[in-house]
Structure formats: C-alpha cells, structure tokens
Design brief:
By secondary structure, the protein is of the alpha/beta class. Helices cover about 35% and strands about 20% of the residues.
C-alpha cells in the first residue's frame, strides 16, 4: 500500500512550524478551495493577500495558457525583449500615476524585491544605514530579515546586516532619527504584520519631506497592499506622496510567483555598471508570470473592483459585532479583528476552519484575526463569512463564560 499525500507531506516537505494547517486542497475557484473529500473552504485571506482576483480567475488562466503556447523561459532577465515583460512594465508604470517611477525591475517574490531595492539604495547613495519600523516584516532572506522590526525572528540568524535602526510607524517624533547617514527608510503605508496599523497622510508627507531634506531614499513596501487591496491601486496614492522606490509582489501575479521594484531611470541605471550585472536574476520576470500579472492588472481595472471595496469593507465592519471583538480596524480589504489574546483568536480560527472558513493571525499581532479576501468576493459571500465567524465567536465565548 502506498503512502497518502498527508504522509508524504509529513515525510518530505520541510516544515516551517510544528503545527501546519495540513489541509489537502485539490481544487480552487473564486473565493473557495476544496479538499480531497470535496469539502469547501471560503478563503478569507487570499493565500495571504495573493489571490486578489480570486483563485483561477478565468482571465488569468487564459493569459497563462496563451503564453505557455508561445514560450516560457528564454534567457536570464534583462537580455531579451519579451512582450509579457515590456507590456506589464508599461502598465505598472502607468498605474502609479507618477512620471518619477518610470522603470521596473522584475523579481520572483516580494523578498527578492526588497533585496534588490536595498542593493539599489546602497549603490546609489553610498550609504549603509537603513531605517524600518518596529513590528515590520519585509521578508525572510538575510538582507530583508536584517530590517525586520522584531528581534525574536532575527536573533537565531545573527550576524545580520549592521546599521539597521527602527522607528515607530506613524510617530512624527521618530522622524528625527532619519539623518544624512541614512540610505533609505523602508515603510508600509498599511503596516500588515503589525496587525493592520495605518498612519495619516500628514505623517507620510512629513516622512517624505524629512527624506528629501536628508538625501534619504524612501522605499514604500506595497507587497501586501498593492494591486487594489486598499481600495486604490496603490496605498501610497491617497497620501499625496511618491516614493523613490516602490515594492510589489503577492497580489501582483494572480496566483503566480512574481515581484518587482519600481524606481526612476537614474536610480535603476546604477545597477548596470561598476559592476556590470550589479543585480541579476535568472527567473525574475518569467514570461508566464508576467502574462498572469498583466491579466490581473487589467481585470482589476476593467471590472472596477476597487470602486466596490469601500462598501464591502464597511459591510465586514458593520456585521462583525460581538462581545469578544475589541476592535475591527483597517482599510479596504486589509482588516484586523482584535480580540483579548492569541488563545481566543486561535480558538476562533480553528472553529472557522471546521466550518469551512480560512483565516489566520498576524506575525507581530497575534491577538488579531486577519481578513484579506479576494477583491472579487460578493456581498452575499461576505455575509456568509461573517455568519461563520460570529458562530465561531459564540462558541468560544460560551466556553469561556
């Protein structure tokens, strides 16, 4: 008798924790995933802000199939003219609404976008100091991990990069820490793994001014918030600022792996000489992933998904009323439901999974539950999701009282 997939998973897949969900998903469509027994699960977290246009979006699937019929990998990034890359790059530049962000460097992931942006910053400024926020997450490779804002994640892997400092997200007084020694500040508009914490436009404008005054580059990390998740295509746009470098990934690919950093042509050129190939990738900008990303971008725009998000976000907030909920905060489809502690959140999550709803918590805010559904979720599906959440909360509340 052969091994089951569960046994093979436990035997051969390297673990990331001692308690994986270990759901065996055999199909996904729209906002739903289905396990080996045919049970459906509504995906309320989009694979962590990835499936912005839903699982297996027909437009994305068609673009993938069409591109596979033409060609897949041809050459390392940056050498050949490949139509999926150039069309996507043009569309991304236009989506920012800024002439400043006029070139794109494609990567395989958000972490790699962070790494590329850090190298670009050091090469352009000649400085080494980076400032990020406490409780920020920007990736797991050694450079990206160095700027993480949580010591618990970093201590086992030291020594990491030196010259890393931290500020509190949204704190105007902390901006004085940015000096002529600072190469870049890297910041999220909406602090995702900190539990969906936001700051005002005035704060980001003050941050932009401080960076300008000190010759510091401003890197905005929109790996979670980009591609329409907050109700605008980029979360930085309502803040009336333009970053020097913009990072994206996750929801960018419609389910395919891809990332990118955008910057001005003058900055980007510094990676091409002294040394030549100052930054290089084999699979970055893979034509199939680029085709999927372009289809994702066009679908979000053509279907006017962003226009629907404020009302749908408010529907979540209005329905999620319960004694164990302390607060529902966030913007668009980046929402956090705060409860008393991790024990309560975990109990609600486990009960939801039993009843066919997938959600989770945040790396640096484990007393809050994540809501980040596909942008395509309907109002009826939101009502179903909230009903399951409230039933789970009722059960947890009754057991504890």
């Amino acid at each position: 008798m052969g091994f089951t997939h569960r046994q093979l998973f436990q035997k051969f897949i390297a673990p990331t924790s001692d308690a994986p969900l270990a759901l065996e998903i055999t199909k996904a469509e729209g906002v739903y995933m289905y396990d080996a027994q045919g049970k459906s699960y509504m995906d309320l977290i989009s694979g962590i802000a990835v499936s912005n246009v839903g699982h297996r979006n027909p437009a994305v699937v068609k673009a993938i199939k069409d591109q596979v019929d033409a060609y897949m990998h041809l050459m390392v990034y940056g050498e050949y003219i490949q139509s999926p890359q150039v069309q996507l790059a043009e569309a991304l530049v236009k989506s920012t609404g800024s002439e400043h962000l006029n070139q794109v460097y494609f990567t395989n992931s958000g972490t790699e976008a962070v790494e590329g942006a850090m190298k670009l910053t050091k090469r352009y400024t000649g400085r080494t100091e980076f400032i990020s926020c406490f409780n920020a997450y920007h990736g797991a490779s050694q450079g990206a991990l160095s700027i993480a804002g949580d010591e618990n994640f970093k201590n086992a892997f030291r020594p990491l990069l030196p010259d890393i400092r931290h500020i509190h997200h949204g704190c105007l007084a902390n901006l004085s820490k940015i000096t002529e020694k600072t190469a870049a500040v890297i910041i999220e508009i909406v602090a995702g793994e900190a539990g969906v914490k936001t700051a005002t436009a005035a704060y980001f404008q003050a941050l932009r001014k401080r960076c300008d005054n000190t010759g510091t580059l401003l890197i905005v990390d929109e790996i979670q918030s980009g591609f329409g998740r907050t109700g605008t295509f980029w979360a930085f746009q309502p803040m009336d600022i333009v970053p020097d470098i913009l990072l994206t990934a996750k929801g960018m690919g419609g389910g395919m792996p891809i990332g990118a950093f955008l910057a001005n042509e003058t900055l980007m050129r510094t990676l091409s000489f002294e040394p030549v190939l100052g930054h290089i990738t084999t699979f970055g900008g893979h034509p199939v992933s680029c085709a999927a990303s372009l289809a994702t971008l066009r679908y979000i725009m053509d279907e006017q998904l962003m226009a629907q998000i404020p009302a749908k976000s408010n529907l979540f907030k209005s329905l999620l009323q319960h004694p164990i909920i302390h607060e529902v905060r966030g913007i668009g489809f980046m929402l956090a439901v705060e409860m008393q502690d991790f024990k309560t959140v975990k109990a609600v999550i486990d009960e939801c999974i039993l009843n066919g709803l997938i959600t989770d918590w945040f790396l640096f805010c484990d007393n809050s539950l994540r809501i980040a559904p596909p942008l395509t979720i309907t109002e009826e599906e939101i009502k179903i999701a909230c009903n399951i959440l409230l039933q789970a909360m009722n059960k947890v509340y009754s057991l504890n009282n």
